[in-house]
Design brief:
Elements (H helix, E strand, L loop, with lengths): L6 H19 L7 H14 L21 H40 L4 H19 L5 H19 L9 H11 L3 H17 L5 H14 L7 H10 L17 H21 L4 H16 L4 H11 L20 H25 L18 H9 L4 E5 L4 H8 L3 E3 L11 H11 L7 H5 L3 E5 L4 H7 L3 E5 L3 E5 L21
Parallel strand pairs: 1-2, 1-3
Antiparallel strand pairs: 3-5, 4-5
Helix pairs in contact: 1-4, 1-13, 2-3, 2-15, 3-4, 3-5, 4-10, 4-12, 5-6, 5-7, 5-12, 6-8, 7-8, 7-11, 10-11, 10-12, 11-12
């Protein structure tokens, strides 16, 4: 039976849990979701990983699908439960990560109240990682496991490093975020070695085992070669790869996470340096790339957990003994909070939300444009906008093949990517579309290049609130009625 003295702690825990449930439940689609599920379906159907891309007429390199396992799991979840299945998969992965995080904090000796505060900081930091269903969700889980294992090594459990090849073998088949994990593992090992907290055999052996684990993919050394050629910090056409200053609100979250490094230094001083080095490195990189903010938050909370041990009170004190009326009031407030949270979770439970044309999302697709392309006798080669590519693959293949989509380096050469970006940015040569042999063009109508295309003879056959479809000549096409259905994946 609960003691009245534990009532404040129970209330704090309940509210943290409710925040976590709401944060995990809100699920939106991103422009790559259609492709991830479709490619996973292809793998399940063929029982093989394709090396040549069948969806694009411009792909000019072998397809290295380094996220094939994540896409297979996503396709399996979608096959079982549709959008609800995808959300269930996200719930399992995200909640598993938070369970690992919580256990790591408690095993490090962090008091419950402080651990709950750190959990809230983590929720804020990693929210972008878990607000959509993408392969990087698996990096969220595996990176959390990696940091928890490193904390175990810090407590003298050297043998957990033997799990590194298994961890990185799974990671390398799920998502390219293993590069961040391997870098942090190497940096942590070097720092611990210099601080004489680990022998050179375990320091070098753990990193080497992790590196060898990444060879356990269908591509082997070819994956290393591919990543060496393609991985970098400069991706001007992807919002998540921009500096943190491009989203000023994120700087607040970054500062909140960075404050944990200050607390760790004040509590442990030089003894905290081996942990502060990898955490600080992630903080600097997060300033360069928005996507790394979540990894920075995880690193600051989990890796620095020993620095927060025995910090703060074990429980919140009561100014007086709660009366029966106090308990009834608190109970009523809890019921209201639970009901409101349940309503919010239920609202999102079966729908991966697709932003409509009235939502301020640069890539937001129009249901009418998709309906137009599907319902008319349109086939051949579609010069596609970057963010529309995988949406077109889902709804329009095989009658239409795209010119460019979110897979970028995995199927397209650098020259082709640059050519498309120049075309989108109103390059003087509007003849690029004809040189590609495009039969149709689907672009956001905000792009200035559309004016040049019309001067070059292209004719508008559809115009919506967000996008336009162009053809080489006029024709008779059925125009779609306004979409009134739910805006849930897969749409239209």
């Amino acid at each position: 039976m609960m003691k009245r003295a534990n009532l404040p702690d129970l209330l704090v825990a309940l509210h943290v849990l409710l925040v976590l449930l709401v944060a995990v439940s809100d699920t939106g689609a991103d422009p790559d979701l259609w492709g991830h599920v479709r490619f996973g379906q292809d793998i399940l159907t063929a029982h093989a990983i394709p090396r040549q891309d069948p969806y694009s007429f411009t792909s000019d390199r072998p397809w290295i699908n380094h996220e094939w396992l994540a896409e297979t799991l996503m396709a399996g979840a979608y096959g079982i439960g549709g959008s609800a299945g995808l959300i269930a998969l996200k719930w399992v992965v995200a909640m598993s990560a938070f369970v690992v995080l919580w256990r790591a904090l408690r095993r490090a000796g962090v008091f419950q109240l402080v651990a709950e505060g750190l959990l809230l900081i983590t929720i804020v930091g990693v929210y972008p990682l878990m607000s959509t269903i993408r392969p990087h969700l698996f990096s969220f889980l595996l990176y959390t496991i990696l940091l928890a294992l490193l904390n175990g090594v810090g407590r003298g459990r050297w043998r957990v490093l033997l799990w590194m090849p298994v961890l990185f073998a799974c990671w390398a088949n799920l998502h390219g975020g293993w590069i961040v994990g391997l870098g942090v593992l190497g940096l942590w090992s070097a720092s611990a070695l210099l601080a004489r907290r680990i022998s050179w055999i375990w320091a070098a052996g753990g990193t080497l085992l992790g590196l060898l684990g990444t060879l356990a993919t269908p591509y082997g050394m070819e994956l290393w070669s591919f990543l060496w050629e393609t991985v970098g910090l400069g991706r001007a056409d992807i919002t998540e790869w921009q500096p943190l200053t491009s989203k000023p609100a994120m700087l607040i979250f970054w500062a909140m996470t960075a404050s944990l490094l200050v607390v760790a230094w004040r509590r442990r001083g030089w003894a905290a340096v081996p942990l502060l080095i990898p955490a600080g490195a992630l903080g600097v990189l997060a300033l360069r790339v928005v996507r790394l903010e979540g990894f920075f938050a995880l690193t600051a909370v989990i890796l620095l957990a020993p620095c927060f041990a025995a910090l703060g009170p074990k429980r919140l004190p009561l100014s007086r003994r709660p009366a029966r009326g106090d308990l009834m009031l608190v109970g009523a407030m809890c019921v209201v909070a639970i009901v409101a949270t349940g309503a919010a979770v239920n609202r999102w439970a079966g729908c991966v939300t697709v932003p409509g044309s009235d939502v301020e999302e640069p890539w937001a697709p129009e249901a009418e444009a998709i309906t137009f392309l599907r319902s008319n006798p349109i086939q051949g080669r579609l010069l596609s906008y970057f963010d529309y590519g995988e949406l077109a693959i889902w709804h329009l293949a095989p009658k239409l093949r795209v010119s460019y989509d979110g897979r970028r380096e995995t199927v397209y050469s650098e020259a082709l990517r640059i050519a498309h970006q120049r075309f989108y940015s109103n390059a003087p040569d509007a003849g690029y579309a004809r040189r590609l042999g495009a039969d149709y063009i689907w672009l956001p109508h905000r792009l200035p290049v559309i004016t040049l295309l019309e001067r070059d003879g292209w004719v508008e056959i559809f115009r919506g609130t967000r996008s336009v479809v162009l053809a080489p000549r006029k024709g008779r096409y059925t125009q779609p009625a306004p979409w009134t259905g739910p805006r849930c994946f897969p749409g239209p």
